[in-house]
Design goal:
- By secondary structure, this protein is α+β, with helices and mostly antiparallel strands.
- It is about 25% helix and about 25% strand.
- The strands form 3 sheets. Strands 5-6-3-7-15-11-10-9-13 form a 9-stranded mixed β-sheet, with no helix packed on it. Strands 2-1-4 form a 3-stranded antiparallel β-sheet, with no helix packed on it.
- The N and C termini lie far apart (about 155 Å).
């Protein structure tokens, strides 16, 4: 059995070992803590770099978007876009005024004014040369022709705030009677404009014939025949157009498609519209009429393109008459 002094010696001998062990654990824990701190610092730096790159990329993307983003289109640009989608030419300087508003009708067939409203001088309804033409219903306000003639250049067609599309033109017009014409009253309409101004298709359809003829045996002119697929019995004819922009077979959109320019006839032909325009104005105009293609004596579509696949024209049935009428 150990005595007390031997036991104390053993205790003294083991104390340094415990002290070394404790120091080792402290060192180990400190090293671990340092490693953890270093790793956390590295992770923080990594996350910071990622965030910085993301922020930079976001800033770059935002800058690129700001550079490439198109500004909000103006109302005028929107109007041009709509007109081009309908059929107007991209290079037409008057696209923002298209489609031109309505001028007249025959039944369900709507006729657009063939001139941009700001370019119109006067509008005259009159008889067509032949009785195969059909009477038009004006969609503008009709006024006294004598009063317009006396004013000589009324400027009664507003330049600004005109509607466009399938609504009537805001304007005044008048009707005249021509003694040597065979057509009924208001079977043709002349829309006055300066020579060289664009002329537009009055209806939506297909150009089925373009024919040269001699106007009053004094100058060459063109007949442009347009038919609507919804109105096979009708032939819409446009006269006094120069610098032709369409061909037979072309599809045209009413009030949108340029078909040419207004022909200069006033210096050669003593036309009636010059009696109502300004004194210096020779009365150049674009003429539109609607012809009855079912009439046997009507020859306007001879040799024309058949857009109805050989079905021909539908002869109107006689109106039934009740017994005793």
């Amino acid at each position: 059995m150990m005595d007390k002094r031997e036991n104390q010696a053993v205790v003294k001998d083991t104390a340094p070992e415990k002290q070394k062990s404790a120091i080792g654990w402290v060192v180990l824990c400190t090293a671990g803590a340092v490693i953890v701190i270093v790793l956390l610092l590295l992770l923080f730096q990594l996350l910071n770099n990622i965030n910085s790159r993301a922020s930079s990329q976001f800033a770059i993307t935002k800058l690129e978007a700001a550079i490439t983003q198109k500004p909000e289109p103006t109302e005028e640009e929107k109007r041009v876009y709509e007109a081009v989608n309908l059929g107007a030419s991209r290079d037409d300087p008057d696209a923002k005024y298209l489609p031109t508003p309505l001028l007249a009708s025959y039944g369900e067939l709507m006729i657009h004014v063939p001139i941009v409203p700001r370019d119109i001088t006067e509008i005259e309804f009159h008889q067509a040369s032949y009785d195969t033409s059909l009477p038009l219903t004006p969609l503008v306000t009709m006024v006294d022709a004598d009063a317009v003639a006396e004013a000589q250049g009324t400027n009664h067609i507003p330049y600004e705030d005109q509607p466009y599309g399938e609504v009537p033109l805001v304007a005044e017009s008048f009707s005249t009677w021509r003694m040597f014409s065979e057509g009924a009253e208001m079977t043709a309409v002349d829309t006055g404009a300066t020579a060289g101004k664009y002329a537009y298709a009055p209806i939506t359809g297909t150009v089925v014939r373009i024919k040269e003829y001699t106007l009053f045996e004094q100058m060459q002119d063109l007949e442009i025949h347009i038919q609507s697929p919804n109105h096979p019995n009708l032939d819409v004819v446009v006269l006094h157009v120069d610098n032709l922009m369409v061909n037979v077979g072309d599809k045209v959109v009413g009030g949108c498609t340029r078909i040419g320019t207004v022909k200069s006839i006033g210096d050669v032909i003593d036309n009636n519209l010059s009696n109502f325009t300004a004194i210096e104005d020779p009365g150049n105009h674009c003429h539109v009429q609607v012809n009855d293609a079912t009439r046997e004596e009507y020859k306007g579509l001879e040799g024309a393109l058949d857009i109805f696949d050989g079905k021909g024209y539908v002869k109107p049935e006689p109106t039934p008459i009740e017994l005793g009428q």
